[in-house]
From TrEMBL:
Cofactor: binding comment: Binds 2 magnesium ions per tetramer.
The entry's keywords: Aminoacyl-tRNA synthetase, ATP-binding, Cytoplasm, Ligase, Magnesium, Metal-binding, Nucleotide-binding, Protein biosynthesis
Residues covered by the Aminoacyl-transfer RNA synthetases class-II family profile domain: 111-341
Main location: cytoplasm
Cofactor(s), names only, from the UniProt record: Mg(2+)
Domain of life where this protein originates: Bacteria
GO molecular function: ATP binding; catalytic activity, acting on a protein; magnesium ion binding; phenylalanine-tRNA ligase activity; transferase activity; tRNA binding
Lineage of origin: Bacteria, Bacillati, Bacillota, Bacilli, Lactobacillales
Name recorded for this polypeptide: Phenylalanine--tRNA ligase alpha subunit
Family named by the database record: Belongs to the class-II aminoacyl-tRNA synthetase family. Phe-tRNA synthetase alpha subunit type 1 subfamily.
Length: 346
């Protein structure tokens, strides 16, 4: 066989093998095998040295043609295989944008926080300041300045966690009244504040008692504050929390820091002009009254000039009434199944 025949046979077989390469790796191996330095084409061309000068250009031209043909076929095949690889990858990584997403779990304010923030918004709208006080409190502010000297019997109403003789976990937010009165500069205007926060009592936890709960204290002191102002304010609170059609009623009561003192009930259902008084169910929700002159005087405020009202309400109790929660401990267990029921997003 002539060298030309060898070359033609090589071309035919090489083209077949190139077309048969199934992967890019196989194709590359084939390229090396056919066109590489030690490849079959080079091998055949080694025989050129034995040819006559007449034959060489012809064989050389054929060899070039074969090299080009093989190079083209390899490039073609390579393009095809690369496309296959890409297609396979795209198919595998395909994302179905119509699949429902995985919802992100979104947090929300605790139900008590919702109640407290509702009150904060409301009172800020009425020009009140929001003031916080310490939970570890001095006996002086928690009791003495609130008109409860050491031997006062009403101290028993609030079983206290004492830290030392003078330090305790505050049993009420009322000490913030004393702290604020002490600081307030009345030449700059009236004092209007609420103070939300945690309070502590040495109670045994049960459905209606918790050793830790919340209060929101309110205090307004100025020159001509009346009980009418107190009632109007608390009515606004009841409307915000329970609905515009609920009413409130004040009953005489006793607190050492207010005189007169009242207990405030809110109507369980709506009250319209047609509702008969005996049909209304009243629920006690908070304590309030006109600030006792002693509280003002102990804080250095002239009680012959200034007076005001105060109230203390329990967001825990409000939330229980509003949502029909029967066990106060639910608020403190942090069970998300309970808490997500009060999702504001609806
Ligand atoms: N501090 C009282 C308590 O914890 C609640 C209270 C009653 C606060 C009457 C007040 C008030 O400011 O005027 O039982």
């Amino acid at each position: 066989m002539s060298l030309q025949d060898d070359l033609k046979a090589l071309r035919q077989q090489a083209l077949l093998r190139i077309s048969a390469a199934k992967t890019l790796k196989e194709l590359n191996e084939e390229r090396v095998k056919e066109l590489g330095k030690k490849g079959s084409l080079t091998e055949v061309l080694r025989g050129m040295k034995d040819l006559s000068a007449d034959e060489r250009p012809e064989v050389g031209a054929l060899a070039n043609e074969i090299r080009n043909a093989l190079t083209d076929r390899i490039a073609e095949r390579q393009a095809l295989l690369e496309k296959e690889v890409l297609d396979a990858q795209l198919a595998e990584e395909q994302i179905d944008v119509t699949l429902p997403g995985q919802p992100a779990i979104q947090g929300q304010p605790h139900v008590l926080q919702q109640i407290i923030e509702g009150l904060e918004d409301q009172f800020m709208g009425m020009g009140y300041q929001i003031i916080e006080g310490p939970e570890v409190e001095q006996d002086k502010y928690n009791f003495e300045m609130m008109n409860l000297p050491k031997d006062h019997p009403a101290r028993d109403m609030q079983d206290t966690f004492y830290i030392s003789d003078e330090l305790l976990m505050r049993t009420q937010t009322s000490p913030v009244q004393a702290r604020t009165l002490e600081q307030h500069d009345f030449s700059k205007g009236p004092l209007k504040m609420i103070s939300p926060g945690r309070v502590y009592r040495r109670d045994t936890d049960d459905a209606t008692h918790s050793h830790q709960f919340h209060q929101v204290e309110g205090l307004v002191v100025d020159k001509h504050i009346t009980m009418g102002d107190l009632k109007g304010t608390l009515l606004a609170v009841a409307h915000q929390l329970f609905g515009e059609d609920h009413d409130i009623r004040l009953r005489p009561s006793y607190f050492p820091f207010t005189e007169p003192s009242v207990e405030v009930d809110v109507s369980w259902g709506p009250v319209t002009p047609d509702t008969k008084p005996e049909e209304i169910e009243w629920i006690e929700v908070l304590g309030a009254g006109m600030v006792h002159p002693n509280v003002l005087e102990k804080a250095g405020v002239d009680s012959s000039v200034y007076g005001g009202f105060a109230f203390g309400l329990g967001p825990d109790r409000f939330a229980m009434l509003k949502y029909g929660v029967e066990d106060i401990r639910n608020f403190y267990l942090n069970d998300v199944r309970f808490l997500t029921q009060f999702d504001q997003k609806g």
